[in-house]
């Protein structure tokens, strides 16, 4: 059973700081919103969002990224 982030079901995978979220919808509009909110992410296919943070990311920056991601994903 997939996990849920807001209303969106997703599958996740993490290796170290690399994170991949596989969504059930196209991520193009999601990525556009995330970029507008200041969160730099990559598309890795039609339905995958990839996060590759700097190795020196702070806990505060991680919290900000999670807040932005949560706000945007709740709309989908």
Q: How would you describe this protein?
A:
The chain is of the alpha+beta class. The protein has a single domain (3-73), classed as Aspartate Aminotransferase, domain 1. The chain has helices spanning 28-36, 59-73; strands at residues 3-5, 8-15, 18-23, 42-43, 48-51. Strands 1-2-3-5-4 form a 5-stranded antiparallel beta sheet, with no helix packed on it. β2 (8-15) and β3 (18-23) form a beta hairpin. The longest helix has 15 residues, at 59-73. The chain is globular and about 30 Å long. The two termini are 19 Å apart. The model has no long low-confidence stretch (mean pLDDT 85).
Summarize the structure.
With 76 residues, this protein is of the alpha+beta class.
Produce the secondary structure layout.
Blueprint: E1 3-5, E2 8-15, E3 18-23, H1 28-36, E4 42-43, E5 48-51, H2 59-73
Antiparallel strand pairs: 1-2, 2-3, 3-5, 4-5
Low-confidence parts, pLDDT < 50 over ≥5 residues? none
| Top-tier CATH class | Alpha Beta
Overall form: globular
How many distinct helices? 2
Total beta strand runs: 5
Strand order of the biggest β-sheet: 1-2-3-5-4
Biggest pleated-sheet summary: 5 strands, antiparallel
* The CATH architecture: Alpha-Beta Complex
Proportion in helices: 25-40%
Count of domain modules:
1
- Distance N to C terminus: 19 Å
- Name the CATH homologous superfamily: Aspartate Aminotransferase, domain 1
CATH topology description:
Aspartate Aminotransferase, domain 1
Radius of gyration in whole Å, from Cα? 12 Å
Order of helix and strand elements from N to C terminus? EEEHEEH
Helix vs. strand class? alpha+beta
Mean pLDDT: 85
**Beta strand %:** 25-35%
């Amino acid at each position: 059973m997939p996990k849920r982030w807001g209303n969106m079901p997703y599958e996740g995978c993490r290796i170290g700081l690399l994170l991949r979220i596989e969504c059930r919808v196209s991520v193009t509009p999601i990525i556009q919103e995330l970029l507008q909110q200041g969160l730099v992410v990559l598309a890795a296919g039609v339905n995958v969002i990839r996060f590759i943070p700097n190795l020196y990311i702070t806990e505060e920056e991680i919290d900000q990224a999670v807040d932005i991601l949560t706000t945007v994903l709740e709309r989908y």
